[in-house]
Amino acid sequence: MAAEEAGLDLVEISPNAQPPVVKILDLGKLKYANQKKAAEARRHQKTIEIKEIKMRPNIDTHDYEVKMKAVRRFFEEGDKVKLTLRFRGREMAHMELGMQLLHKVRDEVATIAKVEAEPKLEGRQMMMVLAPR
Fold first, then answer.
1. CB–CB of 82/50 below 8 Å?
2. What gap in Å lies between CA 26 and CA 127, rounded to an integer?
3. Cis-peptide, bond into residue 15, ω within 30° of zero
4. What string of DSSP letters covers 70-96?
5. % the chain with pLDDT above 70
6. What is the spatial distance between Cα 107 and Cα 112, in angstroms, rounded to a whole number?
7. 55 FRET partner, CA 20 to 30 A, in 14, 31, 48, 98?
8. Residue 2 in contact with residue 22, Cβ under 8 Å?
9. Is the pTM of the predicted complex or chain greater than 0.90?
10. What confidence category does residue 87 fall into, taking pLDDT thresholds of 50, 70 and 90?
11. DSSP code for 133
């Protein structure tokens, strides 16, 4: 056979084609090249992180704007954002303020993000997860 004479391997490239396609090449080199290609692909993929933004229900306007700037930056980087609202003391009596704040955030970033987890209360914290579109 031609492959044995050349000291190479007969490698099946596409077995489903009619007729099946084969090439004469070094199988070790092919495996090495595929391994390198897979490693390169892994190196260039972005891992999605969950960034957390903590707020209080009676946040001031400037503080809110600073937090929102950070939220937008996280979405541009392709990360998810977990908004956490911490209630302290008598703030627990006014849960609707926290809900209004989270709805305000949701409406503000509606064009660049979607709600992944609706606002829910866990103890003294209210949480909502947003993901970039």
1. yes
2. 56
3. no
4. HHHHHHHTT-EEEEEEE--GGGGG-HH
5. 100
6. 10
7. 48
8. no
9. no
10. very high
11. -
pLDDT tens for each residue of 39-83: 998 888 877 889 999 999 999 999 999 999 999 999 998 899 999
> Amino acid identity of 48?
I
Token pair 């209630």: residue? 87
Phi, psi of 116 (to 5 degrees): -95, -35
Q: What is the secondary structure of 28-65 as a DSSP string?
A: HHHHHHHHHHHHHHHHHPPPP-EEEEEE-TT--HHHHH
Q: State the Cα–Cα distance between residues 30 and 35, nearest whole angstrom.
A: 9
Structure tokens at 45: 């993929």
CA-angle at 122, arms to 119 and 123, nearest 5° = 140
CB 25 within 8 A of CB 32: no
Asked if the bond preceding 19 is cis, omega within 30° of 0, the reply is: yes
Q: Are 60 and 28 contacting, i.e. CB atoms less than 8 angstroms apart?
A: no
Helix and strand element counts for the chain (H, E): 4, 6
133, 113 contact by CB (below 8 A): yes
